[in-house]
Structure formats: C-alpha cells, structure tokens
Amino acid sequence: MADKAELDLRFWLATLASKGATAALPLVVTPKAPLAFRAWTPETTMERGIWNIPVPATGPEVSPHITLAPVVGWDSAGYRLGYGGGYFDRTLASYTPTPIAIGIGLNAAQLPTIFPQPHDISMDYIVSETGPQPLRS
C-alpha cells in the first residue's frame, strides 16, 4: 500500500508481465497535467514520486491500451474517487482513443454517488473482491 492507502497493484502486473503483457506505471511529470506511463518490470529501479508513490526511475514512456486505477471510493455509474487531484481523469481525457479504464477497489468502498463533476470520466469496469463489474459500454 502507498502512504495514502491506495492499492499497490505491482504484484498483479508482475503476474501479467510473466505471461507476456507489457506493463507500465503512471507518474506525474508535470503537476496538474496528464500522467505519463513508463514501462515496468519487477526488475525496474523505482524511486519515490508525488505522494511518495513508487514510480519507475527511468525508462521509455508508453501509451496504455488498458489502465488500472486504484479506487478509494466508487459508484455504480463507474465514477471513482482517488487521491490524485484529477490526474487520472485528465489522463483519460488526453488519449484518443480512450484506454479501457478499470478501477480496482473493495465493495465496501462503493457509494451511492460520488457526485461526479463535468470533467470526471467513468470507469469501464470496477474489479473488487467479488469480481469484475461492467459499468459502461
């Protein structure tokens, strides 16, 4: 877990990478701008990024086809709450086509609504301890 208690998904990415997937981790390069993604393997040298979250220290930037985002809270429309100050929404909005967006969280974190703002982008799926839940098409 990172300092603000978002899920650390590197164990899952390591499993995917062992099966041939290309994995990347997000990092803040410019405050209040979309995130960048750097290629990652379990051998990648890490450093502390914004909010003390581990990020790849160096490496090529990649464009994701699928994004995984830890959720602190989420609603049945697929809107998520995180600790990123809008970074994830800005990132999704910057891609054409938009990557498949998957939120990872706990059922206990589901809320009736997060009161989404016009800039919020909903997830395509939420994956929790009970499995995946499709949210939008």
Keywords:
two-stranded antiparallel ribbon, single chain, alpha/beta
Specify the biggest β-sheet: 4 strands, mixed
- What is the spatial order of strands in the main beta sheet? 5-8-9-10
Shape: globular
- The total of helices stands at 2
- The overall average pLDDT, rounded, is 88
| Strand proportion | 25-35%
What is the straight-line distance between the termini?
31 Å
Task: Please state the oligomeric state of the protein chains shown.
Answer: single chain
Using only C-alpha atoms, the radius of gyration works out to: 14 Å
Q: Helix coverage percent of residues? A: 10-25%
SSE succession: HEEEEEEEHEEE
Sheet/helix structural class: alpha/beta
> What is the number of E strands?
10
Ranges where pLDDT stays below 50 over 5 or more residues in a row are none
Element layout with pairings:
Layout (H helix, E strand, L loop, with lengths): L9 H9 L4 E5 L8 E5 L5 E3 L5 E3 L9 E5 L2 E2 L5 E2 L5 H8 L5 E5 L20 E4 L2 E4 L3
Parallel strand pairs: 5-8, 8-9
Antiparallel strand pairs: 1-2, 3-4, 6-7, 9-10
